[in-house]
Amino acid sequence: MATRIDMPQLGLTMETGTILQWLKAVGDTVREGQPVVLIQTDKVEYEVESPAAGTLLKVVVQEGAELPVGSLMAVIGEAGEDVSSLLGRRPWAGRADRAKSHEPRAALEESRTRSRGPRAGRCGPGERVRSRR
Predict the structure, then answer these.
(1) If the chain, 133 residues long, is cut into consecutive pieces of 10 residues, what is the mean pLDDT of each piece?
(2) 54 in a domain, yes or no?
(3) pTM score, two decimals?
(4) Residue 115 within any structural domain of the chain
């Protein structure tokens, strides 16, 4: 079964990475864990390892290309395997959009206060809550 090599997210703020150098060529046999491509982020250079053993079947982007996190870089599988079904999918698509769409902090705090029940807001900051015994 063919396996995708996607642009990894190496940090919380990483949005894109640049392909510096392909360490393997199409048709080369790779072992699981063997470095396949060298990428660069705004902070580091990183060797992306093969997630599976097999043959490098397709290199989707060339050296120098900048890609968003989760974008397809290459496909590994068995020689002669059809990889067309993997070329259109993006398993992490929308991940960055979901992270940016969170409610503003004030709205989140307000919703938490409302969900605490009828006693919420009866005492101010630093005041003690008294029990009703």
Answers:
(1) 90 91 94 94 91 92 92 90 70 41 46 50 63 63
(2) yes
(3) 0.63
(4) no
